[in-house]
Design brief:
Blueprint lengths: L11 E8 L10 H16 L8 E3 L9 H6 L6 E3 L7 H15 L4 E8 L1 H7 L24 H16 L3 H15 L13 H5 L3 E3 L2 E2 L9 E9 L11 E10 L15 H12 L8 E4 L4 H10 L8 H4 L18 H4 L7 H13 L18 E8 L4 E9 L1
Parallel strand pairs: 2-3, 2-4, 9-10
Antiparallel strand pairs: 1-7, 1-8, 4-7, 5-6, 8-11, 10-11
Helix pairs in contact: 6-9
């Protein structure tokens, strides 16, 4: 593969990525985690902060991203705060790449931070069972449609329609935990079994506790730049080859098919724009608030046919050394999930493509070569939105 294919008028590269402190972070504010991640990503890039003229953030502040940019001492001339749930960061990355390609910005910083776990523990907030009861949601809330129950209903439909089993869904949690075992930043690293997943307390049928993502603190940052800056980078660039976004529904009654997510659209667009096929992808970082999300996203991105996700996730295919390594850091099921995890997917994909994941969890192609192509796909709401980004090494 050459050093990337044209993306608009200018090629766009990932210059720097970083995590803030993650897991259990009791003595920091969300703003502090934003700043920590941003500083580390800038240091990772080798660029001076003066190059940043674009900024994207969501989820914090009354006037996001203005408040966060001010806290970081930035005065960007291009901003975005599109907020569509867990897919926010893939959507923001797509918008930023388009802006850089068109010449509207040269260097865009994407940054996120949350102390969701610490705030809950300290009583500064309560757990949210739903997104509220205003607008169209008012017609579902009285019937007990919690956030988790929406995913559970969709999973049950897939099981009914295609024969997907609880054991197959549990395999996703087991393999995520196995991938996390070699990740020193992962919150949970001890192995689990299918039986342990199935025997846990039921949260929303058919999901037991281990079918659901963890709650953590943490933040991360990604710096995207125009190709003009590549020669000044501290590390080889990872190129943004293509992206796609899509929205589907808000109310469950408007969801045409519970077994199809908007990744079926965003993925197709991203692969077409990148000029690659799903079978060329070396690793996938997928949003996994629940095990079913991983399964249906694999189908909708084209890694297996619709209805075959259950069989596909068996036999260790998602492990670091499996047929298609998925969520190589442990994902939201084991590594971290501080509220919106989409930006973490991009960080892990870039680290894997650079060969920086470490000897115990670095993905290798047959023969030992580093991976060339990765996909990061985020899901928002209850499969309400999707953003997919294809990345490649130079």
């Amino acid at each position: 593969m050459t050093s990337g294919t044209p993306y608009g008028n200018r090629r766009v590269a990932v210059a720097g990525v970083a995590l803030s402190d993650c897991g259990r972070v009791d003595e920091a504010t969300p703003y502090a985690l934003h700043a920590q991640a941003a500083r580390r990503a800038l240091a990772d890039s080798g660029l001076d902060r003066s190059v940043i003229d674009g900024f994207a953030s969501a989820g914090l502040g009354t006037l996001a991203p203005v408040e966060v940019a001010e806290y970081l001492g930035l005065r960007p001339t291009w901003v975005d705060s599109t907020s569509v749930g867990g897919s926010t960061w893939e959507v923001l990355a797509a918008h930023a790449a388009d802006a850089i390609a068109a010449g509207h910005a040269d260097a865009v910083l994407l940054v996120y931070g949350s102390t969701a776990r610490a705030d809950l523990k300290a009583g500064r907030r309560t757990a949210n069972l739903s997104f509220g009861a205003r607008g169209p949601l008012q017609f579902e809330v009285p019937y007990g449609h919690t956030l988790i129950s929406k995913y559970a209903m969709a999973a049950r439909r897939h099981m009914h329609q295609y024969g997907t089993t609880l054991e197959q869904l549990a395999q996703i949690a087991v393999q995520a935990r196995a991938n996390a075992a070699a990740n020193p930043d992962a919150m949970y690293r001890d192995p689990i079994t299918v039986d342990e997943v199935l025997s846990g307390p039921v949260i929303a049928d058919p999901f037991t506790k281990l079918h659901c993502c963890i709650r953590s603190d943490g933040g991360c940052a990604v710096l995207l730049v125009a190709e003009d800056y590549v020669h000044d980078l501290a590390k080889p660039p990872v190129w943004v080859l293509g992206s796609g976004t899509a929205v589907s529904h808000t109310t469950m009654s408007e969801w045409d098919d519970f077994t199809v997510s908007p990744a079926a659209v965003s993925g197709r667009l991203a692969f077409e724009r990148a000029g690659v096929r799903p079978d060329e992808i070396d690793l996938a970082e997928l949003y996994d608030a629940f095990t079913y999300m991983t399964l249906v996203t694999l189908e909708d991105l084209g890694f297996c046919a619709k209805g075959e996700g259950g069989a596909f996730v068996e036999k260790g295919r998602l492990l670091r050394d499996g047929e298609l390594p998925v969520n190589t850091d442990g994902g939201g099921l084991a590594a971290c999930h501080p509220g919106m995890r989409g930006l973490f997917l991009l960080v892990e994909a870039v680290r894997q493509l650079r060969g920086e994941a470490g000897p115990d969890r670095q993905v290798r192609k047959p023969g030992g070569a580093l991976p060339q192509l990765a996909v990061a796909s985020g899901t928002g709401g209850w499969f309400c939105s999707s953003g997919t980004v294809v990345l490649g090494r130079g």
